[in-house]
Amino acid sequence: MLGRDRLGELRRCEQTIPSTDLDCDAFSAEPRWQGDPAMASATFHDMEAFVEEVLRLHPTIQAAEQTWFAAMELYPQATALDDPAFRFMNGPTIFGSSQGQHLWRVQLAQRVPWYGKRGLHGEIADGQADVAYFDWQRTRQQLAAAARSAYLQYAVAEQLYELSAEDLRLAEAMTSAPKIERVSTNAQALAAYDTYQIDRWELERKHEESEVARELARERLNVMLQQDLSAPLPPPVMPHRPHEMPDEQALIQQVLMQSPELAIAHRLEQQAAARVALAEKDFYPDIDVVGRFDTNASDFWAPDRANIRPQLGIYFPLKIQHNKRWAKLRQMKFEQRRRRAETLALQAKLTGDIQRSLAQLQRAQRRSASLDRMLAAAKRRLESQVALIAHPPTPTNETLANQRVVLKYRGEQIKQEAIWLDKYLELAMLTGDTADR
């Protein structure tokens, strides 16, 4: 069973045993931020720091952890013997009868399971605790993936908003509204004015959309941090784009070894095997060992030892109705085969997910390389245009247009980098790694 050391600390805390080396607040079922002003404002400097802050504050992790702790308490219950049964009987003289002898009996019985049953029950309980542990790990992994995705959207939205604001400023510097007379009937002048207004409104609309996207990204981060939607956040840091493609076979081996979802499937398969063995053991009966003393005496409190008759026996049920036991055994074997098939299907799915993500990553890499070349060419063109003009009093429209082209390709590059990084984050979730690794 995973987490035995942590379970021991938890039991010591629950039993209120004084200890100076335990942090019992870490096992509290209450959300960690309630009543703690120090946790009301979260600080982080990059993506992984934000992920750690979310994992520290989010109640979903606490709920999954408490479920794991509860499942670890199943093992001592499953392996414990039944409580012994005590029986005391008295004869009629205790009720005031003047005839007959005084009779009494003391009996003690203990049920002993057939050899191997307790171990199999403990194995099933251990498997259930391991499933809860890996479910806790899966919850952390999924929440970390959601946090990384939210932070990436936040960083991209901030950069696109800044580019949109700069593009709007350059567009306003390039052109001015055409002048037309109120009584003018020049259709060409009216069309030019309408075109100017439509272009300006389109730029303002795009800028408003980028501002809305930025606000939504901020709100999503504040929701994850259990903060007010308008709480201030530190400026984002765009994660670095990896330069090397990961190895496919290494990733597949890693996900098959570290995937919590696959580990849960393996534990469920092991539980099914234990249930098959337990169904086979069910053909053998549990035995009740009985010990008792009988006597008849005139004095209840001081009986004659010669009249005390000790007895020892066993209660041995006859299990002759085998039809239901054979049916249960077949049911458990079918269940075991189903679990095995589900494990193999999950392995194939995870392998396919890795291959699909790598293929998408390669396509994103090629697209990003193409945008890098286009952006570099646009920058060279802008530098050449600036170099041809010796100290211009104001930037020319052509120079401003080239600057807008650079901003356009820079925005496309940021979007493509976000797609590329998103595929890396998907691989990180599948393998259980951080984005840096």
Largest sheet: 4 strands, antiparallel
Mean pLDDT comes to 80
Outline: elongated
Strand numbers in spatial order across the main sheet: 1-2-3-4
- Counting helices, strands and paired strands, the structural category is alpha+beta
Task: State the distance separating the first and last CA atoms.
Answer: 29 Å
Low-confidence spans: 31-40
**Proportion of residues in extended strands:** 5-15%
- What value does the Rg take, in angstroms? 37 Å
Number of strand elements = 4
How many domains? Answer: 2
Helix content: 55-70%
Compressed to H and E, one letter per element, the order equals HHHHEEHHHHEEHH
Tally of contiguous helical segments: 10
Topology summary:
Blueprint: H1 4-14, H2 47-57, H3 59-72, H4 74-79, E1 85-90, E2 102-112, H5 117-174, H6 187-224, H7 248-258, H8 260-281, E3 287-297, E4 309-315, H9 323-388, H10 397-431
Antiparallel strand pairs: 1-2, 2-3, 3-4
Would you give an account of this structure?
This protein is an alpha+beta fold. The chain folds into 2 domains: 39-239 and 285-318, no CATH class; 240-284 and 339-437. Helices cover 62% and strands 8% of the residues. It has 10 helices and 4 strands. The chain has helices spanning 4-14, 47-57, 59-72, 74-79, 117-174, 187-224, 248-258, 260-281, 323-388, 397-431; strands at 85-90, 102-112, 287-297, 309-315. A 4-stranded antiparallel sheet has the order 1-2-3-4, with no helix packed on it. Helix 7 packs across helix 9. 20% of the residues are buried.
